Amino acid sequence: MDFSFTEEHRLLEQSVREWGAREVAPRIKDLDREHRFDPDILPQMAKLGLLGISVPAKYGGAGMDYISLGLACEELEAVDTSLRVVMSVHLGLNSLGLLQWATEDQVDAYLAPQARGEKLAPCFFLTASRRSTIAFLPRL
Predict the structure, then answer these.
(1) 85: pLDDT strictly greater than 50
(2) 1 falls within a domain
(3) Which residues pair with residue 126 across a beta bridge?
């Protein structure tokens, strides 16, 4: 497998870095001191395609590869750890789990709107039973 960065990877990296420097970095110290998260950041992440970065385009995502996801996470982590955590839970734990295991009805109801940033997935749980049930709780 070739892990060389493509031009698309470099443009993504630069875009996320510039967005973070412009929109998040100037306010992050104040937000940290106030112990709060600015929810207006999430629609901006959705507009950039980050909330569905590695979800196939047919499900509303950006259809990028996992190297792109890693690069975006690195850039988010550099500006604010909580943004990378949002990506890890929303996309990594929830959306990609839905992509792998959901029924078509669940994909339509949850994955596609999550990939577009219309619904957020701040939590996730799974249970073990004889049928290995996986359950998701997206925030509506």
Answers:
(1) yes
(2) no
(3) 134
